[in-house]
Amino acid sequence: MNIIMLGAGYVGLVSGACFAEFGVNVTCVDPDESKIQRLHDGIIPIYEPGLDDLVKKNVEAGRLAFTTSLSKCVQKVDAIFIAVGTPTRRGDGHADLSYVYQAARDIANYLTEDHFTVVVTKSTVPIGTGREVEKNIRETNSKANFAVASNPEFLREGSAIGDFMRPDRVVFGTNNAQASEVMKALYRPLYLLETPIVQTTLESSELTKYAGNAFLATKITFINEMADLCEKVGANVQDVARGIGLDGRIGKKFLHAGPGYGGSCFPKDTLALVKTAQSVGSPVRIVETVVDINNKRKQSMADRVIAAAGGSVKGMKVAVLGVSFKPNTDDMRDSVALDVIPALQAAGATVQAFDPVAMKEAERLLSDVKWMNDTYAALADASVAVILTEWNEFRSLDFARAKSLMASPILVDLRNIYNPNEMVNTGFSYTSIGR
């Protein structure tokens, strides 16, 4: 089979490389000439474990190619996946679909009457977008022989390849039988592994993505509120999470208390769902509350650091360990660091930080931060250290060395990496979440 992945960003590149691994011939198309040149040179523009090897293998096998020109590769393809960005639209919180609709119009120019093509929305899009994509294509090219399908991605940054190759399920929606057969053929390797394939309508497929992310965001926010309650009543949120997570109806995943969710999906998708629901007169009040609580929580995390430092960080050096929104990625989108670091600076602190992979990206977004070469360089002369991202290398700190380097031994662990009881003998003043 032959497909095009329109957009060589996170979703498009990972999905394209994985489809190529299935034996599909994939061309990733992106208008960014520098990105395509880097891919031709074997340089992966994003950080995702294992992706560089997967791309190299399939390029060498002739199954994966990159170009800036849609016209050079669009003939006789079975499917074209739209995998472009849908950021939050400035001013109103809705998803910005301008890239999606422009992609649809670009595709329409090359569709023909004598060859059937499935146009697939892989981007996360609000309910009704698939219908609008179809409308855009038909208005641009009335003779185009095509059908539209929705195929949301469920890729977690840091483990995206495994999520694509061994997913919990595959969801696609279309009202066209021929398009359905194409989608089944593309995912046949997963069908043979007995992966559940959920086939539904366009609207249901689109809503499934938003509903899934909103539910997970709600789960995170719930345990964060339980963590706050634990601090007031003397309970341990990790014990509570384990106690409820062992209930099969609830499950243990996404019950880790912390500073709030971030990243490329949950913040924008929960907000887009809220806006969509409001626009059709069916508000999702639980999700509205989740969005509000999470925003306020991230903004309040600096207060915890300041409190641990004795009520003021003015004139102090604060060591920040980890700035990406989660480990195993360089993604800074809606990272808690973007709230915590400016707030600490506004309170008079000098911030020195280290992250294994995200510092280059973070430098564009954060000013007046002293970026250090390793963990212990960041700790040097710091009056307080704060763990913002649970990178593995922060899980086994040499506390004797850290104590000898720091101006005062104060650690604020916003990811609950360490056991409070075990921290007693380290000589550190230790603060965590909900314990």
Compact description:
42% of the residues lie in helices and 14% in strands. It folds into 3 domains: 2-200, Rossmann fold (3-Layer(aba) Sandwich); 210-292, N-(1-d-carboxylethyl)-l-norvaline Dehydrogenase, domain 2 (Orthogonal Bundle), CATH 1.10.1040; 301-431, Rossmann fold, CATH 3.40.50. The chain is α/β, with parallel strands linked by helices and 435 residues long.
Structural commentary:
The protein is of the alpha/beta class. The protein has three domains: 199 residues, Rossmann fold, CATH 3.40.50; 83 residues, N-(1-d-carboxylethyl)-l-norvaline Dehydrogenase, domain 2 (Orthogonal Bundle), CATH 1.10.1040; 131 residues, NAD(P)-binding Rossmann-like Domain (Rossmann fold). Helices cover 42% and strands 14% of the residues. The strands form three sheets. It has a six-stranded parallel beta sheet with strand order 3-2-1-4-5-6, sandwiched between helices. The longest helix is centred in the middle third of the chain and has 32 residues. The mean pLDDT is 95.
